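In the present case, backbone shapes were mapped to integers, as reproduced here:
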Amino acid sequence: MSVLTVLGFGIAAVVGIVLGYLVRQSIAKRQEDTIEARISKATQDAKEKAQKILEKAEKEAAEVLDSAKQAEKERQELFMQRETHLLRKEETLDQKDAQLQKQVHEVESNQKRVEEVRAELEELKKRHIAELERIAGTNVKQAKEELLKQIEEEYQQEFHDRLVKLEQFGKEGLEEKARMMMVTAMQRYASSQTQEATTTTVSLPSDEIKGRIIGKEGRNIKTLERLTGVDIIIDDTPEAIVLSSFDAVRRHIARVTIEKLISDGRIQPARIEEAVLKAKEEINEKIKEAGDAALYDAGIVGVDPKLVWLLGRLRFRTSYGQNVLMHSLEVAHIAGAIAGELGADIAIAKKGGLFHDIGKAVDHEVEGSHVEIGMKLLAKYGIAQSVIDAMKSHHEEYPYETIEARIVQAADAISAARPGARRDTVENYLHRLAELEQVATNFVGVERAYAIQAGREVRVFVTPDQVNDAAALLLARDIANKIQEELKYPGEIKVTLIRETRVTEYAR
């Protein structure tokens, strides 16, 4: 290649480089102008926005300032009004205080004048009394005692008569009202009482059965007595044997067993055991039926089945010859009637009356009084505490907490004390009469005493020289209180004190 060609290529390269540089500079300049224009425009926009924001902020600040000035002005006006009002009140209080001070001074002055007048009156009274004592020759205390003694002696009988009259009037009114309530309650419930003894007679189809009941070498009768727990008495009574036991359940089981054996015709130890088991099942069913019947008769529901069974056991329990279940049912009805008359809770009174002797169902198996046992049983089987409170005081072992407790106690006394309800032994009856007379005759001034009305009343004759009318009233109360403290008895005992004056003269 020639030098010219090389030189031409070099010149062309230099020219290309120069042209490229110039083109690049031109392009860069145009690009630079575009970015500066954008930055300038953005700056201008930002200034305009800032100006608008500043103007808006100034406007809002001016509005807030105007509002604050207005609120401050209103507060100032309110403060001025209140200050003016308080100043007026203060002026009024100052005026009232001045008036009160003036009144206090006046009262103090009046009080001083009253004290002075009182002192003058006391002085005059002392002088007057001293002058009267000088004239009468005695002092005020002695004169007062003498006057009271004279009035007491003169009007003693009148005071006594008036006291007796008032007491009798109030007593008669209360007794009449109580009597009407009791009579109404008893008339609304009439119940027959079965007097049960400790023996049961079983009728036999013939006397030949007696030998079969005894068995060979007495094996049958011994098995019967061992399994039933009763004494079987076979004597000369035609076509009858006697079952003896204090437990009515045992007697009933023995009677049912013997009747089953007689009906079956097979009387032997193995058959006796089967008959006794069936009789026990039958008696348990009858116990449940008796409990259900008592609850139905009393109108009580929602009782635990175990408690129902215990209630039914009372059907075979007696107290002084009175059937305990019938007695409990009677107490429930009487308590409900009395509660209705007095406005008490009838349901609580009925339940308390029905369950008041529930402890007697197991008192031969559990230690404690039947009241304590009954309270535990009722609490165990979910009976309400109000019912327990109503039944626990019927023997006064616990204090009366509710009116229903007093009602149950009264109903229990009515049921137990009514004629024919209970049977007592002759020895206990005579012993109670003797105790009544002994308590009455131990008082000073008592001449003689007689227990009458089957021990429901004691008549006391006093010596008129030793006991006056006023003392007779106190003596009757003392005798009644002594009987209440020392003796145990059903119902109530009436104390009648008699004081009579006999004058005897002889014509000769």
Summary: Strands lie at 199-203, 231-233, 240-244, 318-319, 322-323, 446-452, 457-462, 494-498. The radius of gyration is 56 Å. The chain has a mean pLDDT of 80.
